[in-house]
Amino acid sequence: MVSFGFAGQGRAIMRGPMVSGVINQLLTTTDWGELDYLVIDMPPGTGDIHLTLCQVAPLTAAVIVTTPQKLAFIDVAKGVRMFSKLKVPCVAVVENMCYFDADGKRYYPFGQGSGTQVVQQFGIPHLFDLPIRPTLSASGDTGIPEVVADPQGDVANTFQNLGACVVQQCAKIRQQVSTAVSYDRSIKAIRVKVPDSDEEFLLHPATVRRNDRSAQSVDEWTGEQKVQYSDIPDDIEPEEIRPMGNYAVSITWPDGFSQIAPYDQLEMLERLVEAPSPAAASAVASS
To answer: Is 219 within 8 Å of 226 (Cβ atoms)?
Structure first.
């Protein structure tokens, strides 16, 4: 590992450009040797540090860490979209300080659903919950990780499953194993091919655009539909479709809107529409 704390004294007080320079130096001048994986712990937010890292290092994937509060979900959504624009797929979600056990019961002091909402909206199916536990906090302070202090415990098991998940998803990304989603202009339909099979189905572009579940289309607090079906023209066509890792695609529309469409949502739309052709899909979308 490497840290600015090894070289400097006290707290680092620097403006954005200086921080970017330090990050660049740490990444490019450290003698890393032969690495299997390089894990970078990023600060919260969507600022210069994240942009610098994505420009300096060819990041394979990102793991989103959040807390159970609804307000935290808003920041996480910004992070997922930022990584999408930088073409870095998100492969897992970790919900920190999720619960604690006492008197034989499990309590969720900050509520539930933030991590699940990330999974549902952005199609990241791997969600890991970490508890509020004094030993977990102490392990970070003492330098003895929980997976070492209690290798058979529940927390260690969660970390091990998270590590295995990241390894597997990075391998899939390198092998480019994903559902192929493309737009066929000749028939004006979005083609979705399921991996490891010959199965393929078609979706009408307007249907996909109208069923966006992001905060720009649906109110995050009330669930009220902000973008009405009539606001989307029947003849709308996507400008670009590109993969976001193994579980979603990013679709850019003519109005400048960038939609994140998880594969399972596309499959759900296909089951709802039950249309073998774009014309049939258009009829359903327009009804």
So the answer is: yes
**61 contacts 173 by C-beta, under 8 angstroms:** yes
Q: ∠ at Cα 52 (89, 30), nearest 5°?
A: 100
Helix axes 48-56, 16-29, angle to 10 degrees: 30
Q: Give me the pLDDT at residue 12, please.
A: 64
The tokens describing 241, both together, are 């479709």
pLDDT value at position 152?
92
CA distance 265 to 270: 9
Locus of tokens 């007080």: 13
- Using alpha carbons, list the distances in angstroms from residue 150 to 137, 153, 200, 262: 13, 5, 47, 36
Name the most confidently modeled range: 16-30, 151-165, 207-221, 269-283.
151-165
**DSSP assignments along 89-127, one per residue:** -EEEEEE-S--EEETTEEE-TT-S-HHHHHHHHHT---E
Domain range summary for the chain, segments of one domain joined by +: 59-178, 180-272
What token pair was written down for 167? 């390894």
Give the model confidence (pLDDT) of 235-283 as tens digits.
999 998 887 766 678 889 998 888 888 777 787 787 776 544 444 433 3
CATH 3.30.2020.30 corresponds to the domain 180-272: yes
Per the prediction, the chain carries an average pLDDT of 80
What CATH architecture applies to the domain 59-178?
3-Layer(aba) Sandwich (3.40)
φ, ψ (nearest 5 deg) of residue 141: -75, -35
Cα angle 182, 183, 189; round to 5: 125
State the pLDDT at residue 18: 77
Q: What is the pTM of this model?
A: 0.67
- The HSE-up count of residue 147 (CA atoms within 13 Å, CB side) is 9
Bridge partner list, 242? 250
